[in-house]
Amino acid sequence: MVLPAILYIALLLGVPIILAVYYSLSDITTGGIAAKFVGLANFEALFSRPDFLRAVGNTLLITTTTLAGVLVLATIQAELLLRDFRGKWIVRFLILLPWTAPASLSVIAWLWMLDSTFSPLDWLLRAMGLMGKQGDLFGPFPNAYWLGRSGLALASIVLVNIWRMLPLGTVIILAGLNGVPRDIAEQAQIDGAGYFRRLFQIVFPILYPVFGVTILFTFVFTFSDIVTVYILTRGGPANSTQVLTTLAFFTGVQGGALGQGAAAALFLLPVLAAVSVIILAAIRRREI
Fold first, then answer.
1. Cβ neighbours for 100, distance < 8 A, ≥ 6 positions apart
2. Of 1, 10, 38, 153, which is the most buried if we count CB atoms within 10 A?
3. Which segments constitute the ABC transmembrane type-1 domain (predicted)?
4. Cα–Cα distance measured from residue 121 to residue 143, given in angstroms and rounded to the nearest whole number
């Protein structure tokens, strides 16, 4: 009964992976049909490129900072949404809205919010007296140029990624909190345990598998994402925000070096597989 689904998944995932491996070992280009076997030459060329090494570092930096932000903020949001208050369902809907919206449309909205001329964030900072004069937090510039300065561009990408991934993390952790046995927490409260002691010594240990699932989904989606960087910065300024997915696209599709682009894309596969195996193994050990 499950054979059609297995065949569909195998074809959907297996064929692109086989083609990527084949392309990465050849000198194929987007403008030609002939492909000559070159072995590991594409991988050697990639590791000799400074922009590839920087893309690896940026990918890991953006993924880890996004993961940390989502894990902390999603836990806080889930803990607040667990309580009863008026309009809770409306608040839950608004929190889920970034996840339900198409990724490209939501990132385009952020592109306008971070615009170098018309950014509403710049207007707010100037109104608060944090920008526009010498000695201000963002300097004497009339605009922050969020996507034009390397440090601010990376911070902007992390901010947008956290905004996009936060609803999913909140829903997963909220489901875990709803599954925590109430009698255990109530018994600890009767025994005199305070709020933070109950949270860190009772609730969080029970939620370790749930945190593992949140970490896994956030890591995979962020590590393999191309939409945020492609729409906001296209890897700029001066490759300072280039990540593996955009580098593979620009090298293989726009640059025409399909073999090197496939090699860059394949670099994602072992990292994602290793992280997934480690997290799933840790979850399984915790459950046992």
1. 167
2. 153
3. 56-279
4. 9
Per-residue pLDDT, 139: 61
Distance of alpha carbon 9 from alpha carbon 14, whole angstroms: 8
H helices, E strands: number in the chain: 16, 0
Q: Which fold has domain 40-86+158-287?
A: MetI-like fold (1.10.3720)
* pLDDT attached to residue 140: 67
Helix axes 50-81, 88-100, angle to 10 degrees: 160
pLDDT value for 135 = 55
Element (H, E) at 228: helix 227-232
Nearest to 241 by CA among 162, 146, 163: 146
Task: Divide the 288 residues of the chain into consecutive groups of 10 and give the mean pLDDT of each group.
Answer: 84 84 88 80 89 93 95 91 82 81 88 88 81 63 83 94 93 87 76 76 84 92 94 91 93 88 88 88 79
Q: Transcribe 34-95 into DSSP letters.
A: ---B-TTHHHHHHHT-HHHHHHHHHHHHHHHHHHHHHHHHHHHHHHHHTS--TTHHHHHHHH
Burial 52-74 (b: 16+ CB within 10 A, else e): bebbbebbeebbebbbebbbebb
pLDDT of residue 241: 94
Q: Which residues contact 256 (CB under 8 A, 6 or more apart)?
A: 29, 30, 31
User: 124 exposed, middle or buried (CB, 10 Å; 0-12, 13-18, 19+)?
Assistant: exposed
Alpha carbon distance 159, 157 (integer Å): 5
Q: Where are the domains of the chain?
A: 40-86+158-287
Q: Report pLDDT for 288.
A: 65
Q: Which residue has the tokens 């010498």?
A: 134
- pLDDT for 191: 72
